[in-house]
Amino acid sequence: MARQTKPLSVKEIESAKPKEADYVLYDGDGLELLIKSSGSKIWQFRYIRPVTKKRAKKNIGPYPSVTFADARNYWAETFGLNFWLDGFYR
């Protein structure tokens, strides 16, 4: 059974501080925020390619240029229903 992920909040995103190594904050359904050791924050989406069955990721853009709401909307428009209809899945 898949692990349940608690959706991120704006407060969690803004308070995320860089560490020695890069780390990820998960929002669920493949949407995540990569916190780099340099301090930059990058929205990305992880998925499995339907043909090769290999994991892949797509960078959406840097935070705060791409806001939390923008990242979720981008995911919904780009990867949501169309992704499922095209045979892609988490």
TrEMBL record:
Asked whether the UniProt record includes rRNA-binding among its keywords, one would answer no
- Report the record's Gene Ontology biological process terms: DNA integration
A Pfam family this protein belongs to? Arm-DNA-bind_3
InterPro entries documented for this protein: Integrase_DNA-bd_sf (IPR038488), Integrase_DNA_bind_dom (IPR025166), Phage_Integrase (IPR050808)
Q: Which UniProt keywords apply?
A: DNA integration
| Residue ranges of every copy of the Integrase DNA-binding domain listed in the record | 8-76
Record-stated family: Belongs to the 'phage' integrase family.
Task: List the protein's name.
Answer: DUF4102 domain-containing protein
Q: What is the lineage of its organism?
A: Bacteria, Pseudomonadati, Pseudomonadota, Gammaproteobacteria, Enterobacterales
